[in-house]
Amino acid sequence: MAAAAAASSAAAGAADGVDTNLYSRQIGVYGMETMGKLIAMKVLIVGLKGVGIETAKNLTLAGPQSVTLYDPTVTEAADLGCNYYLEASHVGKVRRDEASAARVKELNSYVRVSALEPENGKDLSTADLAKFDLVVFCDEGPAGFVRPRSELEAFNEFCRTQATPIGFIVASVRGVSGMAFLDFGDAHVVFDSNGEQNRVATISNISNGPVTKVMTEDTKRHGFEDGDFVVFRDVEGMDKLNDGEPRKICNVTAHGFDIEEDSSSYGEFVVCSATVEQTKVPHPVAFASYADRRLNPVPADDPMGCLITADYSKFGRPMQLHVAYAAVDDFAASNGGRLPKPHDEADAAAVVEAAKALCAAAHASGADTQLPKPEDVEADVVAMVAKRAVYELQSLAAFFGGVVAQEVVKFTGKYSPLRQFFYLDAFETIAEEGHELAAKDVSEFAVTGTRYDHVVGLFGSRYAEHLQSRKVFLVGSGALGCEFLKNFAMMGLGCGADGRVTVTDMDNIEVSNLNRQFLFRPEDVGKAKSVCAAAAAKAMNPDLKVEALEVPVGPDTESTFDDAFWSGLDLVTNALDNVKARLYVDGICVFYRKPLIESGTLGTKANTQVVAPFITESYGDSQDPEEDSIPMCTLKNFPHAIEHCIEWARDMFQGAFTDSVQEAAAFRDAPEEWVKKTLEEPNAFTRRQKLEGVVNAIDLAGRADWRTCVEEARKLFHTHYYTNICQLLHNFPKDYVNKETGVPFWSGHKRAPQPLEFSIDEPEHLGFVAHTAALIADNFGIAVPSNWSDIEALRELTASMPQPAFVPKAVVIKSGEDDDAVEGGDDDDKVAVEAADKLRSIAASKAAELAALKLAAADFEKDDDTNHHIDFIAAASNLRASNYRIPTVPRHRVKIIAGKIIPAIATTTCAVTGLVGIEILKTFRVPKIEAFRNTFLNLAINMYAMSEPMPPKKTVSKEYDPVTMGPLRAQPEGFTPWDRIEIDGSEAMTVAELRDNIAASQKVDIDILSVTVNGETKMMYAPLFAPSHRARETRPVVDVCREMGMDLPEKRRYVMMDVACSDSDGDVAVPRIMFKF
């Protein structure tokens, strides 16, 4: 049934060949134009170790026409630690590509997935490449061997010289470093370099002259940059600027910019509601070949003049890695394709010499080269790559698999492609010499032919065993959670006899999840996420000790997640999508002093944060500012952005199809009580709205058929898009001038609206009526006819419906947020009373009919494409936009905004969880703050910014503290939120005894003892402010806490307290108190 429901929903959401339900979050990131190009793309992926399978997975979820896999190597035992679609039964029997294709095709039924059989029957040739739009070469072949670089260079030359160039990407992970290279030919066109929504600003003034100077309103920065192109709209007095042509801007300031255009003859600017909008202009980008970039990896026109540097504490490292990778390739070319032997000093030394020889030859040739001089080659970097080149750090494979799959999407012209090499290392994951987990000798790196060979070969057998015995708590099993579980299974985390991974998530699987939460399948729709995800991860590695729960993490579930649970953990990983839950988990981790790794995504952007006990600040120590809310006046009468129109339509949906029907149901169930309560509403306008709304709903419910629903929908159109707009213009005519300022009322952000008269010839008008009528029918249990959306049928029904002329009313409308006038009409009280009398009459005379009325309020659901909810909001918001001459937007954009959907794609999720995996490996060493990295990335523009975490905030002594308004002494000096004072007491310890204990141990006077009850801080003992608290002195602390409403589970044997204290010199700050009993 679940699979059938998923299929039905997919069919309902199909548009232009794209399943808008399945791809809804991805469409929110890419847009329909890019999706249209993507579903026509044919991609070949060569090499199916870690990077290859991650790329294949992410790309298949994205939805190209076909993904073809090639890696004829028969599965080896070590492959099971990097390719999660290979099984023990495949080892020594089944080719990597055949085994992988069988599983990858399960990810997306819209994508043709297959294993390639070469045209020549032997190995890959240019005849095979010619069948594809883009090819990706990853690590392939038997363990310890690589495809010669010369072959890759030849393949690249073939791809770039085709009439329509074939995109070419190389990606590799060698030990604890990785790389990607990209070549899209000599003239790749980028249509949208960053994927951001175009910025719009309101114009305050334009100055004529040889150079046109534009000023925008100073209430908000316009956000434009030098070199951007913009389009002007609704400029009065300078009509020439309204031609729709993109104009390049320069000399950008926070609230202005220039245009190199002579406007001397254009006429003077008139204060109005003019806007200027950023626009994207296609531009070509040229790439060089793989061979040409060997000696000069940085394009000459690169604005930074260096390879992408994610971590500026390692400035210059990417170039050293470039040399190291080239040297390993040269070593392999001289040794029959063999990579350097693991941890072999002789081979490593040979690679170092090859690196120096490469650089020496480059500089001796007389040709331009960006390579370092031989003496500047960093031997330790080259050796690190050489000694571990045969192995693959799975976390880096996940990262590069996300990056590379995103680069494939960029072949559509969306976003800025890599130019052209990208290197990243995770050398800090290798335990330093002398550390207890560092390998004591080479024998610890000996592999034994198991799925853990990569981990053992990189870190040593004892470290591998250490990972397997860890106990990890994963909070959330959505997109991030699925990737984490897969990564844990591959790296062996929690896979030992003493290990454990606990995952919890209370959500069930929906169709829209399948596009990025890759552990789920159509048949899983409706089932618990945590249970399905845990089962899928265990299938990838049967050793994984995983427990799935469906319990939310919060104050209400502390009996499940109790002291024993939290105390027994080694690591917590958050995979949450809301701040409140994140803050709770963060607070718990600080309390139990457990390491926490945070991460989050937003489209192509993502971030990670390491929270390490006593070493870093916590998640709660720094938060993003809250989003600005839309002022009510803007929402109701003065929108100037599509977001305002969508929020208005969402409110309209809530009022018309939810609130009014719920109120009607409440009246039906208790008529007199409801009327009496509503008449007590203090605001006359609100009283009128509620009472009239229920009168209308009861009237409709009693007589409704489909025609009545259409009539009501038609009336709503007339009211909202014609009558109300006419009334607004009656109160504030288009030529209205603010009497205090002399400025036209309709200027700046206030856009003069235009009434819309209903027309049967306008599809948008009929669409609004159709979806509105269907929602009304659902409210009142009326069958929606099969031809509900038929244009001709709607025209016939609505053609004869009247369109009343506008009659002005004496209504007060606020002119802005500073206007303190009370909105409403003179007759609000009178109309409210009349409506109340009518309802009482209905209750008295038609009690039986009233009790039998069918009333079902709509419950907004964004992901059901058959329920008309998003369709109504899209139609309503775009009509509202037409009223105010605001550009309309497609349905999928409305869905993202109205549904408050966080746009998400598999590529970003995979990449960021790979980075989290790297930080996890660091936490199990003796952690140092300089080893950890917080990261912000944006795959769209190749921005990777890694930084050392901030240390925990310290409380220090001050000569003057603004809170206490006097001197403050910190005791101990520089304590942090990780510190606390533990008091060993008993259930019988009294408040006075606790007070005296703290006072004696800290040498302070106690002024206030506070506890937190249900999230609220309450004073438990503050005799100076509450003399009655003296009576608590002789009572047990535990009894007082329970009396105050604190829930103390049976297994909890402590109470956390905050203390305000002082000494003879002034106030004293101390850590929180942990009273143990």
UniProtKB/TrEMBL annotation:
UniProtKB keywords? ATP-binding, Ligase, Nucleotide-binding, Ubl conjugation pathway
Q: Where are the active-site residues found?
A: C633 (glycyl thioester intermediate)
Q: Which GO terms describe its molecular function?
A: ATP binding; SUMO activating enzyme activity; ubiquitin activating enzyme activity
Which PROSITE patterns did the record assign?
UBIQUITIN_ACTIVAT_2
Pathway, per Swiss-Prot/TrEMBL?
Protein modification; protein ubiquitination
Task: Cite the Ubiquitin-activating enzyme E1 C-terminal domain residue spans from the record.
Answer: 932-1073
Gene Ontology BP term (one): protein sumoylation
Database matches in InterPro entries: E1_FCCH_sf, ThiF/MoeB/HesA, ThiF_NAD_FAD-bd, Ub-activating_enz_E1_C, Ub-E1_IAD_1, UBA_E1_C_sf, UBA_E1_SCCH, Ubi_acti_E1_SCCH
Which GO cellular component terms, listed alphabetically, does the Swiss-Prot or TrEMBL entry include? cytoplasm; SUMO activating enzyme complex
Reactions it catalyzes: ATP + ubiquitin + [E1 ubiquitin-activating enzyme]-L-cysteine = AMP + diphosphate + S-ubiquitinyl-[E1 ubiquitin-activating enzyme]-L-cysteine
Which E.C. number(s) belong to this protein? 6.2.1.45
Return the SUPFAM superfamilies for the record. Answer: Activating enzymes of the ubiquitin-like proteins
Into which family does the record put it?
Belongs to the ubiquitin-activating E1 family.
- Matching NCBIfam families: Ube1
Q: What is this protein called?
A: E1 ubiquitin-activating enzyme
Lineage here is: Eukaryota, Sar, Stramenopiles, Bigyra, Opalozoa
